Amino acid sequence: MTGTDETTDAAARAILEGRTSLGIELGSTRIKACLVGDDPSHVLAVGSHEWENDLVDGLWTYPLDDVWSGLRAAYADLVADVRRRYDVTPATFGAIGVSAMMHGYLAFDADGELLVPFRTWRNTNTGAAAEALTDLFGVNIPLRWSIAHLYQAVLDEEPHVPRIRFLTTLAGYVHWKLTGERVLGIGDASGMLPIDADTADYDAVMVAQFDALASASTLASPLHELLPRVLTAGEPAGQLTAEGAALLDPAGALGAGIRFCPPEGDAGTGMVATNAVAPRTGNVSAGTSIFAMVVLERPLERIHHELDVVTTPAGDPVAMVHCNNGASELAAWARVFGRFAAATGHAVGDDAVFEALFREALEGDADAGGVIAYNHVAGEPVVGLDEGRPLVVRTPDSRLTLANLMRAHLYGVFGTLALGMRVLESEGVALDRMLAHGGIFRTAGVAQRFLAAALHAPVALAPSASEGGAWGMAVLAAYARAAGEGSGEASGLASFLDERVFAGATFDTAAPDPADVAGFASYLDAYRAGLDVEAAAVRSLPAAGH
Predict the structure, then answer these.
(1) Which residues are in the Carbohydrate kinase FGGY C-terminal domain (predicted)?
(2) Quick one: what percent of the chain has pLDDT higher than 90?
(3) pLDDT tens-digit map of 343-364
(4) How many structural domains compose the chain?
């Protein structure tokens, strides 16, 4: 038997014996499943399903039917990958974890029925509520946070408010339906309501303040009765029920009774996937949205609307720069160029299109030749936009080339993020390393290099950077499995990652190039000045449905 055969046979035995951990993440454009074995650093199999949000009555949403059809499709794709690689079918796992986009609003009545369509993090209709709660709590409450959505519904006197009996996030909802447990990982919970670091629970003072504020409204239950119970990484979070197993695997091969770890948000899984859970570490996650997370040594001195404070999956405070708009507009332009290639009779795959365009961007001027690209498909609170209008803007003396256009689009992905990170720099927050993950980094040495220039810091790619949050969730499930089996994981999540996941891992690190730094700074100055053009476009060009 060859070494490869031995490795495959060992993996097959681990799968059949349930010595595995499954991570599922519902991202903005893809639902991904990732399976790891006894060594969480090694991916055994993956599955995925593409989906997209809808703008319905002016609000971004995903139908819950799409949640379940997408989950089943991603899981079936993973099972098919297991069969192709190992010629076995999984019937159990050592642990399962569910992650999803943070924040948003899923409100249910006493019978567990959804009261209004799921309102995602992308919505920006909560301005009045966010402002009032920021003033009340003395901390920044962003538009996308669940508590802002709830209070906006109260302010708007929406008819469903008196019937609310449970409020959760997308990850919390899926976990509830699979296990029957109304719980949430502390990282995801910190995007619902601020967390008290001393109690590892919702801030009790703020809960009482909210109840007093909403006392004259039609909200019938106190806030603590509406929110899911908070758990930290490694704590038991229930087991897969028979009903849950049927939801995930209608084929019936999957059995009940599997341990679950606390459900987490995509920010938490990004931190895990990049080993950025200890103070003075940070990470950038780039997808439909883009956000930076920096684990803090001390509280921030001032309130900044560009920054909000969440936590790691272990409960440590994190400064977050969250931008609603990431790589969607860049992907749209790539599709245009892909179609152009096909129209000329030279059709190429999506990966080849991105590779060619990204490589071309390296040939562009350091400042993108005076071309500016705004990636604002949706509203962008960091720069004060309630709605988005994707734009390419240039002056007559700019140098419009394919290289400059693509460099401008790549710079544009990081533009709003860089503005937020400048605020964090003003607080004197120190960083030892910034790690990145997401599909935009699959073309080596391009987006990573430009991000280093934008952040004025070295940017490292984790070995699993392109696998993203689904792998991070699988690692959290593996951590819970190890804790449940009593294998000495009491040292904490950071030690588990250092010793069991990233020991010996090599990181591809890009230092800021001085020419890129100067060029991006010039681009960012023009980008900031041109935000008035973006605001004018929002005023002058109504979106569909407005």
Answers:
(1) 283-480
(2) 79
(3) 999 999 999 999 999 999 999 9
(4) 1
Distance, CA of 145 to CA of 147 (rounded, Å): 6
Q: What is the 3-state secondary structure (H, E, C) of 88-149?
A: CCCCCCCEEEEEECCCCEEEECCCCCECCCCECCCCCCCHHHHHHHHHHHCCCCCCCCHHHH
- Cβ atoms of 199 and 224 within 8 Å: the answer is no
In a domain, 290, yes or no: yes
Let me know if residue 542 belongs to a domain.
Answer: yes
- 3 state SS of 310: strand
Inter-residue contact 81 to 72 (CB < 8 Å): no
CB neighbours of residue 176 within 10 Å: 23
User: Which CATH number belongs to the domain containing residue 524 in this structure?
Assistant: 3.30.420.40
Helix H segments across 382-492? 402-426, 447-455, 469-484
CA gap 204, 194 in Å, rounded: 9
* 238 lies in some domain: no
* Mean of the per-residue pLDDT values of the chain: 93
Q: Is 321 exposed, middle or buried (0-12, 13-18, 19+ CB in 10 A)?
A: buried
Divide the 546 residues of the chain into consecutive groups of 10 and give the mean pLDDT of each group. 67 96 94 96 95 91 97 98 97 98 96 97 93 95 96 98 98 98 98 95 98 96 98 97 97 96 94 88 88 90 89 94 93 97 96 96 98 95 91 97 98 96 88 83 92 92 70 96 71 90 87 96 97 95 71
Does some domain include residue 304? Answer: yes
464-510 residue pLDDT tens: 555 678 999 999 999 999 988 765 455 799 999 999 999 888 888 99
CA dist 412 and 523 (Å) reads 9
Which residues form the domain of 410?
276-461+513-546
Report the predicted TM-score, pTM, of the whole model to 2 decimal places.
0.84
